[in-house]
Amino acid sequence: MYLTWQQRLAEDTSLRDLANWPGIATYQCESSKYRRQFLRNQQIVARVLAGDKQSEVANAVGVSPSWISRLLSRCLGGEDSTPPRLTAGLIPYNHLASGQRRSPLSSVTKPRGARCSFSHLLTVAQGLKAYLDNEIKKDVGDDKRGQNLTPKTLHQAFINHLISIHWPRDTYPFTEEKRGAESLRRYYHLMRAQLTMPKDNYCPTQPRVQTDRIFSEIEIDSQTMDVFTQAAIIDTHGNLKPVRLSRVSLYLARDVASKCYLGYWIAFTKHPNQDDVLALLKQLVTPWSPMTLTTPGLTYPPGPCFPTALDETVCRLTLGIVKFDNAFVHSAGTVRDFVCNRLGATLNFGLPKQPKGRHVIEQAFARVNQITHRFKSTTGSHPRDPIKESQKLSKFPPLLSLKVLEEVVSVFLAEENARLLPQLEHHSPLDIVANQLANCYLLLRPRMPENALNPFIEERQIRVCKTKAEQRSPYVHFEYLRYSGRGLNHAHLIGQMILIRFDRRDIRSLHAYSSKGEDLGSLLAPRSWQRYAHSLKTRKAIFKLNQDASFDRSDPLLGYFSYLDEHKALPAYALELVRVNREYNAGVIELPETPATAELSVSHRRPATTKTDVPAWSSTMVCRRRR
Amino acid sequence: MPRPQRITDPSTLETLARVKIDSLIPSQQATAPSFLRSANCYQQRFIKCAEICTFHCEPEFIHAILLELDPEVSVFVPQPFLLRIGRRRYTPDMYAMREGQAYVLELKPDGEFDPGLHQTLTPFFAHHGLIFDVVANETIMKRETEALHWLPLIQALVVARDVDTQSEEGRIWQACCARSGTTQVGDFVHPGDRDRTMLSEVALHRLLHNGSLCADLSRAPFAYDTELRPCT
Description:
The complex is a heterodimer of chains A (627) and B (232).
Chain A: E1 2-3, H1 5-11, H2 32-50, H3 54-61, H4 65-76, E2 78-79, H5 117-124, H6 128-140, H7 151-164, H8 181-195, E3 217-224, E4 229-234, E5 240-245, E6 249-255, E7 261-267, H9 274-285, H10 307-310, E8 321-324, H11 333-342, E9 346-349, H12 359-372, H13 391-394, H14 402-418, H15 429-439, E10 457-465, E11 475-478, E12 481-483, E13 497-503, E14 506-513, E15 519-524, H16 536-546, H17 556-566, H18 571-586, H19 619-626
Parallel strand pairs in A: 3-8, 8-9
Antiparallel strand pairs in A: 1-2, 3-6, 4-5, 6-7, 10-11, 10-13, 11-12, 13-14, 14-15
Helix pairs in contact in A: 1-4, 2-3, 3-4, 6-7, 6-8, 7-8, 9-11
Chain B: H1 10-18, E1 19-21, H2 33-38, E2 41-45, E3 52-55, H3 58-69, E4 73-78, E5 83-85, E6 88-90, E7 94-98, E8 101-108, H4 115-127, E9 131-136, H5 137-141, H6 144-159, H7 166-178, E10 183-184, H8 198-209, E11 213-214, E12 227-230
């Protein structure tokens, strides 16, 4: 319903006070003439709203009373569903409504001008607007039935459509020289802009509760590092030969309140798996120990560098909410079990494609990239980044070794933890942690057995098998292999479920318990799989690769190693070679052993020097390469 | 548990016939991995729920903390049932047992819920002795700060769920009742030697959790000077 200005004032009495109208700076009026007229209009409206008679105001200002009435209608009148124009109506020559054609369209016999003809045509020509909108929508929406439109092609379609609906040839747009091309071009760009606007997703923003307690929110994320590295590998002739490695991934954990880096993990792959996440989580609950730095010029800042080195109690603090992104590995059962069951913390997967929800960790990666972008072997931030490694250099292995990169990251994060930050009122993150440890009541987890907080220790229920046709001892199936041990040599266990406990990093042996809790001792993998410590990931990789490539069955671990060695020219294989080399040399196994299995015990000796033993980096190495 | 209501109205009976449910025993419905990764999901272990709970949004998570802290609530289960209403599948957000009465709760922004579904579900659950209610997210999020202040205590209790503190609880309870002035957390926790007073800490947390002791954490987090008082 249309409201007159008097009705509008009766409906909303607050509009009687000009102070409630939106303000406008008079300099927005282009010239002094316009400014004068604007101030005059403002004065007229103010006086009428104050209660002066229109005739008196008209006499005083020198306009007619009807002109004043029109001005007030311009400012306050209009449909009740739309807000009044108010101050915008005071601006002289301001077009408040879009033009509308009242007369019929121009024709050859009765030319009437082309003003507002195009918008009028859209309303009178049957189905024209829907047709044009649909064509533009199909183009913008990448519909397979659409076409890549330009204003020219759309104009052709527009004319064809008018012909198809038998639009009179003596009427607009056929009466114009360009047949409405310019109006159509403007309409096309307007519609295209409207259709590409972001959708209004209703997402009410809640005021965030700013936490100042350390460890109440921890953000974790990974990123493929923006730099290529090399590893020196001794070839078959005994020569030291550097090979280019694929890019590694960096996992970081950072506390939101103190901005302190809690731990990091470099995964030797572009696609980290759950073991890499667990390795990072383990750092949150174990005391930090510094790396042995071999790179000249790199030193840790004095004192503890990570919170877990501050005090033993830091490893026992409750962790609050652990925020991940929605990567597939973060929802792994092992990660959920460790975070929720063993640490009692909350696991949170943020909304997809919303990295600003975890801005603290994203900011951390931006800082790390500042360092990695200094190396000549960097990839830069994007494919066209000018600092990206040149084609000339990319033909050879980079100078930066993997060991040096690990040391650089370790020292850099240590220095970041000790750096005074303005957002922390010029305290370092470690100062904040130390201060809260001393003064705040931070909740601790009770002391637990040594292995209780080892995320790599996993338990599974598994069935004991015995093949009647074979004269073999009972066994269990575990990760493609049969495991056996003296503890299973009991008839009552056959067909029963038992509990096995194992370390994901070394699955040469499992520890078994019966359903009643009796210790059944260790179960060992076949002898061909006993030579080197190997993880669940390596075993899966071997069996996956075994489908395509054949290995030496008598020693599949060495066979896999040799396969990688043969293909080390490819960076991804070279990186896997380095990973496997470290894993084979680690030889960790923390599970308890029973005397009964002593004769079948796993050989924990470190393997003899392998071909890929990487010497520590030194400046002489560079000189050697230059020669 | 109240006895199920007898329904005689034919239209209501017709409505009830459209609702299918496998079991009315509340059991957390599995969240699809794709959904887990596409929503702002939270996972947390609680004392009053037997397994790791998955919450599909922040208000659900905050609501669970508040239920955990409510001494009148004995158990709760998120996503407890899977109902089929005609062709539509529906999973309520929460099942909670409060003072012997089972509630089925749905959390919605502004408490706005599909009226048709509401009209179907209310008599259905009432028929089985449960009360169906819609809770506005905003009313829950008003207590977000308080809930997040209590969260570390719940997490510490989850990890210490196997620690026996029965005798220690009695000692702390008596000390709180006997003391004429205010009792503070620092009276039972030694800042310099936390290991020595760890059992007292866990016992204190349990008393706060089961409602024997009260503390106001609506403004400040747990601290050495947080005042404790016996709940009446």
